[in-house]
Amino acid sequence: MKVVTNGVSAEYGRLSGGLVEIVTKSGTNSYHGQVFEYIQNDAFNANSWRQNALGGAKTPFRQNQFGFTLGGPIVLPKLYNGRNRTFFYADYQGYRFTQSGSLQVNSVPTAAERNGDFSQTIYNKHSDFDV
User: Fold this and answer.
1) Residue 27 CB: number of other CB atoms within 10 A?
2) CB 105, CB 54: distance < 8 Å
3) Alpha-carbon distance 66 to 36, whole Å?
4) How many Å apart are CA 99 and CA 110, to the nearest integer?
5) 52: helix, coil or strand?
6) Percent of the chain with pLDDT over 70
7) What share of the chain is helix, strand, coil (3-state, %, to 5)?
8) Per-residue pLDDT tens digits for 59-110
9) Which of 68, 26, 60, 20 is nearest to 42 (CA)?
10) Rounded to whole angstroms, how far apart are CA atoms 2 and 90?
């Protein structure tokens, strides 16, 4: 699928709005399909630099993207033979994502700072790790 706006190409002429171009798969007399999976999780990944610097363990992380496509002729034995006439195409895609929070170090103002006295404040020793 492609969306073209403002007709920037001579291929489409002048467009005042937009154009939606869709390419579909045609049917065949044989069944065909695909299965796919993209997986990333904490078993494959190293601990992050921030977690190591704060002394934390590796956080749980799981990402799975998976699915399938299937196409071919519609054939119902003794009822209908769709070869060369009627075809179907179906697909499914799933996505699962799990991630827990990482360690954070934050500063709390002292009593003097809450009263507006910052004369004793030199620096925030955890500023490199604040989120």
Assistant:
1) 19
2) yes
3) 5
4) 33
5) helix
6) 78
7) 10, 35, 55
8) 888 899 999 999 999 999 889 988 888 888 899 999 999 877 766 667 788 8
9) 60
10) 20
Dihedral-angle region of residue 55 (phi above 0 means left; psi in -120 to 50 means alpha; beta otherwise) = left
Q: Which two tokens stand for residue 14?
A: 């002048």
CA angle 16, 21, 22 (to 5 degrees): 155
Torsion of CA 118, 123, 124, 128, to 10 degrees: 150
Spatial CB neighbours of 49, under 8 Å, sequence gap ≥ 6: none
pLDDT over 50 (residue 131): no
On average, the pLDDT of the chain sits at 80
